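Appendix B, Record 12. Input sequence as logged:
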Amino acid sequence: MQQIVFPEEWRQILQQYVHYYQRLDSTEKISFEKEVQTFLHEVPITGIKTKVDDLSKVLTASAAIIPVFRFPAWEYAQLTEILIYPDLFNSQYSVDGPNRNIAGMVGRGIMSGKMILSKPHLIAGFENQKDRSNVGIHEFAHLLDATDGAYDGLPEFFLQSHSFQEWKENQKQITQDIEKGISDMNPYAASSEIEFFAVASEYFFEDPQRMEQEKPELYQMMTRVYKQDLSKRWKQQWYLLFPKTKKTGRNQACPCQSGNKYKDCCINSN
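Logged structural output:
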């Protein structure tokens, strides 16, 4: 059977935009690329009043694969199509009417099985890797939430039953902190239990070391949900990339080979 070659243009997109991919070792990168290819083969992506280019496709697939990377051959069985919109849209799925303030949505009712993503917001989620916001990961987290049969913000499929109460108590405490204005988590997490899980997932994959520091209990819960201890992994890679005797200037290229300056990339991981 002939092996399908991963397009070099796609690999460059991963290396430039997907911080998660940049942190993988060479073997894991190959696995990630295969999962991206499989996802794009199985799930159609359609542009609505916008072009679906390589950047849109690869970033959408990356947002899908990142949360389930430790679940080999995972399939989003309930997802039939992804619609890429040119900008924000409203609750009637329109980019032309009033109240256009939605960047992503998992469709229900007549839109069941479909996901909608705003193209510029999808890209922005990967461009800024420290803002704890990624609309693609957010929406795929909603699909994972529903794996147990319900959108309820409790990832029962991924947690053992004895952890359910712990999850609820932690969610309640952080929600109260958000309402008091003493939490660094996106306030949208306090809008519902469903959104709490999706926002927590964004935070976990965007800035795991900060989550571990600021919200250690939630961080440990997320490592169990996704079977990934990202903070520990990033720290281990840090010491390999940055020997104690080696100093990197703030404006020099980051040793992680992301293409960014050190001050804009891994400086906060030390």
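The mean pLDDT is 90.
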